[in-house]
């Protein structure tokens, strides 16, 4: 199932996040040019070279109000939704190439059976050089390619987000979705994500 792609300036984006123009990110985008862009998708939660840039200090003291930040990236080629995830914190994205984000709302998850209807997903074009905040309640996953081209996207999150769990909890109904630290994930059965809850109902959305 394909999907209409809206501009990031469309009012429909406002419930998912906001565009940020305050940070000087040109050096970071330039540095990202040296990172790999494989035929599939690669995610690196924390990259020491990116975190050594001067902008990293601005992120550490400002972006999360003094909490330490990890600077990583998600690069590659992709056209499918495959899964949705969310955090207990906002995620900040910087597009180093034109790319498409598939977004939804945590409020639409059915926590009685940990399912989500993929027909509620919306797609937005994030142009190269744009920085956004995705709110904590925004469902998202790996970016998608724009017109089939590869993408590079900086991912800013609190330190140790997406790292391996120390303890897998079994306290509340949401706990089976906890796939990594500060990462709750619902997968589509077609994606064959090992260990994930296959709670996405409906088509595996495509940007084609």
| Contiguous runs where pLDDT drops below 50 for at least 5 residues | none
Total strand segments: 16
Structural class: mainly beta
Molecular shape? globular
What portion of residues is helical?
under 10%
Mean pLDDT, as a whole number?
97
Radius of gyration: 16 Å
Sheet with most strands: strand arrangement: 2-10-6-13-4-3
Q: How would you characterize the largest beta sheet?
A: 6 strands, antiparallel
* Contiguous helical run count: 3
Give a description of the structure:
- With 208 residues, the protein is mainly β.
- The chain has three helices and 16 strands.
- The strands form four sheets. The protein has a six-stranded antiparallel β-sheet with strand order 2-10-6-13-4-3.
- The longest helix has 9 residues, at 55-63.
- It is globular.
Question: What descriptive keywords fit this protein?
Answer:
208 residues; mainly beta; six-stranded antiparallel β-sheet; five-stranded mixed β-sheet; 3 helices; 16 strands
Topology summary:
Elements: E1 5-7, E2 17-20, H1 26-32, E3 41-44, H2 48-51, H3 55-63, E4 69-76, E5 83-86, E6 91-95, E7 99-105, E8 116-117, E9 122-126, E10 131-134, E11 138-139, E12 144-145, E13 151-158, E14 178-180, E15 183-187, E16 200-201
Parallel strand pairs: 1-9, 8-16
Antiparallel strand pairs: 2-10, 3-4, 4-13, 5-15, 6-10, 6-13, 7-9, 7-11, 7-12, 14-15
């Amino acid at each position: 199932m394909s999907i209409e792609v809206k501009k990031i300036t469309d009012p429909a984006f406002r419930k998912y996040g906001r565009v940020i123009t305050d940070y000087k990110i040109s050096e970071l985008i330039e540095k990202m040019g040296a990172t790999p862009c494989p035929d599939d998708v690669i995610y690196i939660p924390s990259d020491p070279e990116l975190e050594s840039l001067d902008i990293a200090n601005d992120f550490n003291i400002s972006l999360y109000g003094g909490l330490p930040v990890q600077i990583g990236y998600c690069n590659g080629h992709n056209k499918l939704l495959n899964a949705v995830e969310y955090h207990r914190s906002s995620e900040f994205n910087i597009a180093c190439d034109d790319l498409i984000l598939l977004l939804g709302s945590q409020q639409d998850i059915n926590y009685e059976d940990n399912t989500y209807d993929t027909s509620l997903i919306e797609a937005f074009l994030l142009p190269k050089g744009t920085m956004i905040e995705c709110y904590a309640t925004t469902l998202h996953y790996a970016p998608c390619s724009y017109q089939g081209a590869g993408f590079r996207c900086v991912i800013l999150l609190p330190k140790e987000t997406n790292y391996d769990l120390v303890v897998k909890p079994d306290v509340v109904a949401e706990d089976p979705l906890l796939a990594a630290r500060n990462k709750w994930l619902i997968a589509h059965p077609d994606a064959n994500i090992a260990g994930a809850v296959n709670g996405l109902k409906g088509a595996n959305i495509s940007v084609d």
